[in-house]
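User: Some background: our group keeps a shared notebook of sequences we're curious about, and every so often someone picks one and asks for a predicted structure to add to the entry. Today it's my turn. The entry only has the sequence so far, pasted here. Could you supply the structure so I can complete it?
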Amino acid sequence: MTSQNLIKENILNKRNRKRKRLKNSGKTIFEEYNFEFLVLGLFGLGFFLLWEDWNIKSLVWNGITRTALLVITFLRNGAVKIGNLLSGVETSDLIGIILILIAIVLVLNRARLRTIERHPNLTSCPKCNSGLRRVHRKTKHKIQSWLYFCKFKRFKCKSCSFDGVAMIEGKK
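Assistant: Of course. Here's the predicted structure to add to the notebook entry:
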């Protein structure tokens, strides 16, 4: 090969070569130097505590005791209110309320099971009997899944306009 051919080939190779780009790490200053900021903050806090005349032990202890006293007072007042409320209700009334609540829970569970039975797991399109594909659930399906304590799966038909939901008993 002649020197002219080598020069032409070198020029062509330079044209076809891609430039290497500098990689931008994308880190912020805080991400890059978070350890240094932590050490600087610890030094600053240490020197501040050495120079100030604070009695930190008594400040922390007072804060803890005040918080504990507040919680205890809140619980005591709540227990007294509940006790006063229950003392005015007769035993037969309590049993009646409990039985009504049990009946409501049983009715709601039956409605839940019937709704789940009406939306069985789908394997093919009920309109045209072709294949289905899974699609993302809507927000209302996520809320219903939480309310019914079951798994919701949303499907769309590949060939027709069917859009359906399958409900499967039991959480994920």
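Suggested note for the entry: The longest strand covers residues 150-157. The beta strands are 132-135, 150-157, 163-169.
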